[in-house]
Structures are given as C-alpha cells and as structure tokens.
Amino acid sequence: HLQQLNLAYNTLSFSFPCGFDKLSNLSYLNLSNAGFTGQVPAEISRLTNLITLDLSVNLFLSDGRPLKLEKPNLKMLVENLTRLRSLHLDGVKISARGNEWCKWLSSLTNLEELSMSNCNLSGPIEDSLQKLKNLSMIHLDRNNLSAVVPAFLAHLPNLTSLRLSSCGLHGQFPREILQVRMLQTLDVLDNEKLQGSLPEFHHNGSLQNLVLSGTNFSGSLPQSIDKLVNLTRLDLSSCNFSGAIPSSVSNLQQLVYLDLSFNNFTGQIPCFDLSKNLARVDLSYNKLSGKIESFKWEDLPNLTHIDLRHNSLNGNIPSSLVALPSLKRVLLSNNQFDGEVTGVPKVRESLLDTLDLSCNQLQGPIPAYVFELSRLSVLVLSSNNFNGTIRPRDIRKL
C-alpha cells in the first residue's frame, strides 16, 4: 500500500537493492543523495504510478562512485512512467546526445519539472522537447550541450525556472525568453560564447533571479529594468555591458544582490536609497565616475559587502558608508577618492573585517577609528597621501 518513499540524504553506500517493482502503488520516490551507487535498476521503470522521481546526486556529498543510467538507459527508465510530473536526475551519469535524450523525454507530456544537471548530456536541445507544454522548471546546467538556446523555450507558458549555466552555449540568446511572464529564475552563468542583449521590460512581477555572468551579453541596461519589481538577484558580471547604469535600478526595492563588475559601465552610480534590502553591491572594474558622498548610505542597513574597486570615483569617502551596522567588507581601491577619512560612530560595534582604501589620493592622518575595529582582519591603506604617525600599540589592537 506504500505510496510515498523518501530515503533522501542518508549514507547507505551500497548498490540499489532489489524489489522496488513490488512497490507498485508508489507515486512519490525520493532517493536523492541517499548513498546508492552503480546502475539504476530497471525495476524503477515498472513503477507506472510514479508522479515524482528524484534520484539526484550531489557529487560533493557522494563518495565519488556515481549513479549510472546505462542498462537500462534513460529511454528504458522513463518510457512507462507517463504520469511523471517531476523528474530529478542531477549528477546521474546518462551520457546521451541531444537527439536521444530529448526524444526519450518527449513522451512525458505531464512533466512539469525537469532537472538533469551534470549528467554528461550533449546537445543540441531538440525541438521534440517543446511537446512538454507543462514544463515549469528546466535545469540542465553543467552539461556539455555546445548548442544554441532554442527559441521554443519562450513559448512554454508555465516556465518559471531556466538554468543552463556552464553548458558551452553559443549564438544569440532569444530575447523573448526574458519576457516570459511566469519566469522567476534565468541562469546562464559561464557561457562565454553566448551573445545577447536585454529587451525593454514590460511589467513582470515574477522574475527574481537574473544571472548572465560570464557571457558575452552586451548593450545597455534598459531604463525599464525597474518593471522587474520582484528582482532580488541581478548578476551581470564579466559581460560586455556599457553605457550608464540607469537610475531606475534604485527603484528595485526587493533587490538583495547586485553584481555589475567587469563591464564597461560609465557615468555616475545611481542612488540606492530605495533598495533597503541590498546586502551586496559589486560595481568594480568599470569606468564609473563621480562622487558617492551625497548618497543616503544610512538607508541601507542590510548592506554587508560593497566593492567599487578600479573605477574613477572621486570626492570624499563618507563616514555614513563605513558606519553601516551590517557592513563587513569595504573595497574602494584604485579610484580617485581624496580628502581626509573622517571618524565613524559606534566603531566598537562594527562588524567590518576588510577595509581596502589603497591606490587613492586620501590625505591627512590615518583615522584612529580603524585601530578600534575589533573584527578587522584585512586593512590596506597603501599608495595614498596619508601623513602623521602610527603608534605600534594602536596596530597591536587589531
């Protein structure tokens, strides 16, 4: 009578036992990271009532002996599991070409979740997958697909999560995918030959995570990016974006993580005082200029990391930035900041562990407060115009 079986996250460390086919009423089977090794048995293909099947393996948690789908292969596993809505095989060694695995899966017309990361799959992503109209999640990251991203993905009306990172993707990314209204997560990280640009966004209350880092996306950020009202993570690092960072970015009130580093952005940094949830900001290695002292840094109480290195920022470093209660890391080196560094209130309560102000034009005495930062582990003040004296007993406080 058993209908659900969950043995996930154990250390069973032996090959699959026999007898799974006797559990004919199973609709839910989760053996992810249970410790099983070797070949996935053919018996599982006889569990025709399965709606959810999860055999995924996190290689960091395993003993290095992978699960395999060879005999039976993927085709033999799924051909009778036509009721499946959720299939998770991450880390299972399948080793199939695109014209094979796409065709084998295309018969699972009820499938909603497909997760096959790091399965030794190759491309291309065949059009036969578009038969799966109910797909809401497609996770194929860390496979050597070496393919273009098919346009039909934009026509999956329920698509909420698309992860294709580290897949050797190339060609032009279909902009229409970025306008799928249900889409919450798009991650194409580390596909250096993948080209594309951002479209004008219409109101989209769904997109939460947009990760294009390590691709060849280019162009400018559209002013309409603030239409992505639920965006919490925006990672466009190590791309070829240029132009100004639009002021509308500051309207993203749910934004927690912002990384635009290693691009060609110019102009001034917009004020982020409306983005009160911001925890990490990385705008390093761009061509940004202007001052940051007039910003209302005190309106960002959750900020823990800020990295503005290697730009052309100038003016004073505001004490309100360094004094933020949650701040742990401040990296402002290789800019043109000048003037004296003023004191910080409540310095003994500071969580700051890294402060890098090197390669600027700062002057005056080294501020005494830095020697009161009890959690500080990295302090870099080199290549400035500081003067005055430093007492050894002050350094010993650190």
Automatic annotation (TrEMBL):
<keyword id="KW-0677">Repeat</keyword>
<dbReference type="Pfam" id="PF00560">
    <property type="entry name" value="LRR_1"/>
</dbReference>
<keyword id="KW-0433">Leucine-rich repeat</keyword>
<comment type="similarity">
    <text>Belongs to the RLP family.</text>
</comment>
<dbReference type="InterPro" id="IPR046956">
    <property type="entry name" value="RLP23-like"/>
</dbReference>
<keyword id="KW-0325">Glycoprotein</keyword>
<dbReference type="InterPro" id="IPR003591">
    <property type="entry name" value="Leu-rich_rpt_typical-subtyp"/>
</dbReference>
<dbReference type="Pfam" id="PF13855">
    <property type="entry name" value="LRR_8"/>
</dbReference>
<dbReference type="GO" id="GO:0005886">
    <property type="term" value="C:plasma membrane"/>
</dbReference>
<keyword id="KW-0675">Receptor</keyword>
<dbReference type="InterPro" id="IPR032675">
    <property type="entry name" value="LRR_dom_sf"/>
</dbReference>
<dbReference type="InterPro" id="IPR001611">
    <property type="entry name" value="Leu-rich_rpt"/>
</dbReference>
<keyword id="KW-0732">Signal</keyword>
<keyword id="KW-1003">Cell membrane</keyword>
<protein>
    <submittedName>
        <fullName>Uncharacterized protein</fullName>
    </submittedName>
</protein>
<keyword id="KW-0812">Transmembrane</keyword>
<keyword id="KW-0472">Membrane</keyword>
<keyword id="KW-1133">Transmembrane helix</keyword>
